[in-house]
Automatic annotation (TrEMBL):
One cellular-component annotation, GO: mitochondrion
Gene that specifies this protein: Ado
PANTHER family: 2-AMINOETHANETHIOL DIOXYGENASE
Molecular function GO labels: metal ion binding; oxidoreductase activity, acting on single donors with incorporation of molecular oxygen, incorporation of two atoms of oxygen
Gene3D superfamilies: Jelly Rolls
UniProt cross-references to InterPro entries, sorted A to Z: PCO/ADO, RmlC-like_jellyroll, RmlC_Cupin_sf
Keywords tagged on the record: Dioxygenase, Iron, Metal-binding, Oxidoreductase
Protein name, entry field: AEDO dioxygenase
Superkingdom, natural source: Eukaryota
Amino acid sequence: MPRDNMASLIQRVARQARITFRSPAGPAFGENLHRLQQLLDEVRAEDLHLAPRGPSAAAAAAGGGPPWAGVVPPVSYMHICETESFSMGVFLLRSGACIPLHDHPGMNGMLKVLYGTLRIACMDTLPAGAAAAPPPPPAGSGPCLRALFRSRQHYTPASPPCLLSPHTDNLHQIDAVDGPAAFLDILAPPYDPQHGRDCHYYRLLEGPPAGAELPALPREVWLVETPQAADFWCGGEPYPGPRVCL
């Protein structure tokens, strides 16, 4: 059963997010961000009327993805609220689904797992002037980018929120591990291509590791910008949880 304070909790999260990201350069930003992190850490799936599952079949028609009959989207999004300073919603990943490596230009972000297990790989961009020459990219590929591959960690509902800033962990890839997963997502400010905040996708410009073990982290890597993968798209589902008013 949902907890009695479910509505007040998600409402408090939204209000704190508005306070926090209204002045991200202000002197109280660190304190406000910490308070938001504490509130977000309390949120559970039942607070948003969610139960572990994959995206519903109905989302295939509503999501605007490729018209592949009988195929549901690998990822669905439930919109909760959005202001000029932040957006908040829930991403639902089917078992084995992946949100490919992408960036959040000039944005802060917070991610809290609601159910399931996510493997999140985080990277930072590095100054172009300090980088060595990249290996030759495949013909017809996009521009290359030097990055620091910082971490690759598993997150569950017991984990604290995963945080990103404009300069730290700003690029990440999210994989559902051993079943479906869902996470509450806050981005500040929201994506807005007209203001230079468009999403770009990347892949590692290197082959798989020679041995059975993955290379140690952190390490410097080259990324190549790519179009959105053909097997990734995001559908839409209605948000079933408590209403948020701002």
